[in-house]
Amino acid sequence: MIALVLAVLRRQRRITASSRALPRAEGAESAILHRAMNAFVLAPERDDRPHEDHFVILRGVNWADYQRLLEVRGERSAPRITYLEGCVEIMSPSREHESIKSVLGRLVEVFCLELDIEFSSFGSWTIEDEDVDRGAEPDECYVFGNVVDPKRPDLAIEVVWTSGGLNKLEVYRKLGVREVWSWRRGRIAPFVLRGESYVELGSSEVLPGIDLVDLGRYLDRPTTSAAIRDYRDALRQGR
User: Which of 92, 116, 133 is the last residue of a domain?
Assistant: First the structure.
């Protein structure tokens, strides 16, 4: 397992000696996590595939090691860390990934402002629950209404730019996130929690009235400000 992880890390990020090396933890699995975080956080020297997300999946990781990963990463927004029943995904998003998620989030906010919907944005809020052995950090997430101390977002947004990662819906399912939007190849699919599973619907329930097909058309504008202006103008003309 150690050899496999190191081979993946060497292929994706050059691992070099660093004077900023992180404190070592005890145990074989913790050593793997140590090398993974050094590779992703401390040594991003070369990027062979600049337009793809980079991620490593580690298996056989316990909750304590997952918590250590979060601690080592600190308050940075990347790499994003997902935990699912002993598996950890450490993902460093590409520029394209970050651009899509940012513009998508801003357009959600424009919709809410134009329709006087109260909202709070929480970015890549670390949502975790040891009882269900899961943790996630969405690309963007929102709580709607005047909620003083939210426990979970109403909406999580996930951009699927590079395939091969953990199943995010399976993570969010037991975390109790009401709705997840998944962007993939230009399409935004809303998944709504129904009991113990997600169901893909044709429209959003947490933001009734939003046209996700129409919203998606504004993601290809040359700048974020152009996307915001054009989408705002379209919403105002439609009223």
Answer: 92
Q: How many helices (H) and strands (E) does the chain have?
A: 7, 11
60 pLDDT higher than 80: yes
pLDDT for the residue numbered 83: 96
Residue 63 sits in which domain range? 2-92
> How remote is the C-alpha of 179 from its chain's centroid?
14
Domain count, the chain: 2
> Is the C-alpha dihedral spanning 63, 67, 70, 73 positive or negative?
negative
Q: Give the mean pLDDT of the chain.
A: 82
Distance CA 127, CA 201 (A): 24
Same domain, 105 and 202: yes
Global pTM value: 0.80
Confidence of residue 38 (pLDDT cuts 50, 70, 90): low
Burial label for 1, CB within 10 Å (0-12, 13-18, 19+), is exposed
Do both 108 and 81 map to the same domain?
no
Check pLDDT > 60 for residue 116: yes
| Cβ–Cβ under 8 Å, residues 157 and 101 | yes
Q: Is the pLDDT of residue 40 over 70?
A: no
In this structure, the answer to whether residues 14 and 83 fall within a common structural domain is yes
Mean pLDDT value of segment 25-53 = 55
Residues 118 and 6 in one domain: no
The two structure tokens encoding residue 236: 């105002």
Listed residues 66, 92, 118: the one ending a domain: 92
SS3 19: coil
- Residue 201 CB neighbours (<10 A): 13
Q: Is 129 helix (H, G, I), strand (E, B) or coil?
A: strand
